[in-house]
């Protein structure tokens, strides 16, 4: 319980202080924002500050900050420290600077920012990765809420035909929210979703406090901070791929750039972008603690994360409260899936210069997006290991995209004569995480296993990852030198 409380203090106090520091580094001013200057009544629309905050939170908080921490707590109470520290120093920083840099560039999506600050070569690579991530995110956020609705709310088999009816309803909502102006659908329905989300998170938190720490201790009693993972997985890098959204997520960049088009004043950015990621960190902490309590009360540690959602909700909030908690978890992916598809539409439109003021062009582009999404969903549902494969690639791609964003932020800060180390250090760390993971993991190169070494050994993967970290640092410096004058002239410095 003590580590949990310390973690919350780090999250709140650290978030307040470091958020103020990040704001000072960026330097928001009174210039016109894209919402005011480029208002088109569709994607560029001035919305109230509280509504921007709520939409940003619901956009970024999918099932990641719930399912990830439930699995991540199996590594031990260390999660109560790494989640808030990572959220303050990396995740919130990432979201804030992406949102603010986008605002300074006419509400540009991340691919356009990568092109401007890192060059067309990097942009081509990034575009492929981010478009794949948006598709995977949208599909994951049809699959997971659909299964939760059928299993936990309707009490039916997720493999029955009813699941496709539920998927169709969710997809229909995504189509509507993707096509219509942001303030007409998302801006109106999200306050209701936000109330459900708040009730579920606060309810689980109250259940944890009521437990009084009696069940909040190391699951395997193997030490103060670490537990022996049931699958023998390494804390580094697997923990940071598993928890992902509760600490940092590349997907968030695509959502921050959406809201950068609806913020009226630059000085509202800290509350909208940085603080809402802190709120997501709180959600992650709460569900990690709830999972630890249930595991220590005897719940099988091999129970799937999705199944744990219902168990935690009912145990800590009772039948009725548990129903609303599950509803809150269902809300999260739905309110991320709709904007994932919306962001993908805008990215493709921006890349190929497709005017989005025309309703017919928005519909046509949306159809292009949803067809492959349906094919991926069908594969994930019809293949026994389909969803597991989908989720692993989603997690890895999510963090890889964040590395690109941190690199872009570092180049922006360095070329503007600002403290670029605040983004470069997290960028170097996550470069090590994603490269060591993909070099070692079975879904990647599986180097140790293929070379006949002990599968638990990370010697080669760690070595190659360290080389990639050095190359990342060299790359940032070279790009900054080559593009310094171009960027400074374009930004009017």
TrEMBL record:
**What are the record's GO terms for cellular component?**
plasma membrane
GO BP annotations of the record are: cellular response to starvation
Topology relative to the membrane: Multi-pass membrane protein
Return the InterPro entries for the record: CstA (IPR051605), CstA_N (IPR003706)
All copies of domain CstA N-terminal, residue ranges: 1-172, 300-435
Quote the subcellular location field of this record. Answer: Cell membrane
Instruction: Kindly report the protein's main subcellular placement as a broad class.
Output: membrane
Q: Does the keyword Membrane apply?
A: yes
List residues traversing the bilayer: 73-94, 125-143, 163-182, 189-209, 234-251, 272-296, 316-341, 362-380, 392-413, 420-439, 459-476
Q: Does the keyword Cytoplasm apply?
A: no
Q: Which residues form a coiled coil?
A: none
**Record keywords:** Cell membrane, Membrane, Transmembrane, Transmembrane helix
Pfam families xref list: CstA
Q: Which family does it belong to?
A: Belongs to the peptide transporter carbon starvation (CstA) (TC 2.A.114) family.
State the protein's name: Carbon starvation protein CstA
| Organism expressing this protein natively | Anaerosphaera aminiphila DSM 21120
């Amino acid at each position: 319980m003590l580590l949990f409380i310390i973690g919350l203090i780090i999250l709140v106090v650290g978030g307040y202080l470091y958020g103020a520091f990040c704001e000072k580094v960026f330097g928001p001013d009174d210039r016109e924002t894209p919402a005011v200057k480029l208002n088109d009544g569709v994607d560029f629309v001035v919305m109230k500050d509280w509504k921007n905050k709520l939409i940003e939170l619901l956009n970024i908080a999918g099932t990641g900050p719930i399912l990830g921490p439930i699995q991540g707590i199996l590594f031990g109470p260390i999660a109560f420290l790494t989640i808030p520290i990572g959220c303050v120093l990396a995740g919130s920083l990432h979201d804030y600077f992406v949102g603010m840099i986008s605002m300074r560039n006419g509400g540009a999506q991340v691919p356009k920012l990568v092109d401007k600050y890192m060059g067309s070569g990097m942009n081509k690579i990034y575009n492929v990765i981010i478009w794949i991530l948006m598709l995977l995110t949208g599909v994951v956020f049809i699959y997971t809420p659909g299964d939760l609705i059928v299993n936990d709310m309707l009490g039916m088999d997720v493999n029955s035909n009813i699941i496709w009816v539920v998927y169709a309803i969710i997809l229909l909502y995504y189509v509507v929210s993707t096509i219509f102006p942001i303030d007409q659908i998302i801006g109106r329905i999200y306050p209701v979703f936000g109330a459900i989300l708040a009730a579920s998170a606060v309810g689980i938190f109250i259940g944890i406090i009521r437990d009084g720490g009696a069940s909040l201790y190391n699951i395997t009693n193997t030490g103060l901070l670490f537990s022996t993972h049931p699958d023998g997985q390494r804390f580094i890098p697997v923990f940071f791929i598993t928890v992902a959204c509760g600490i940092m997520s590349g997907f968030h960049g695509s959502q921050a750039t959406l809201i950068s088009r609806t913020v009226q004043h630059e000085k509202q950015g800290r509350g909208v972008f940085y603080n809402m990621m802190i709120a997501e960190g709180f959600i992650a902490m709460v569900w990690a603690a709830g999972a630890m309590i249930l595991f220590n009360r005897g719940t099988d540690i091999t129970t799937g994360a999705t199944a744990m959602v219902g168990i935690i909700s009912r145990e800590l909030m009772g039948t009725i409260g548990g129903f609303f908690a599950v509803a809150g978890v269902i809300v999260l992916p739905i309110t991320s899936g709709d904007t994932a598809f919306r962001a993908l539409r805008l990215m493709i439109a921006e890349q190929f210069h497709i005017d989005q003021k025309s309703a017919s062009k928005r519909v046509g582009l949306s159809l292009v997006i949803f067809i492959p999404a349906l094919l991926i969903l069908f594969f994930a549902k019809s293949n026994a290991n389909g969803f597991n494969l989908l989720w692993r690639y989603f997690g890895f791609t999510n963090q890889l995209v964040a590395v690109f964003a941190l690199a872009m932020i570092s180049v922006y800060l360095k070329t503007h004569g600002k403290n670029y180390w605040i983004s470069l250090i997290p960028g170097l760390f996550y470069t090590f995480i994603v490269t060591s993971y993909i070099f070692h993991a079975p879904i990647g190169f599986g180097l140790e296993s293929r070379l006949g070494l002990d599968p638990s050994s990370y010697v080669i993967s760690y070595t190659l990852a360290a080389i990639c970290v050095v190359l990342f640092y060299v790359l940032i410096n070279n790009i900054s030198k080559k593009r310094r004058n171009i960027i400074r002239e374009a930004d009017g410095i």
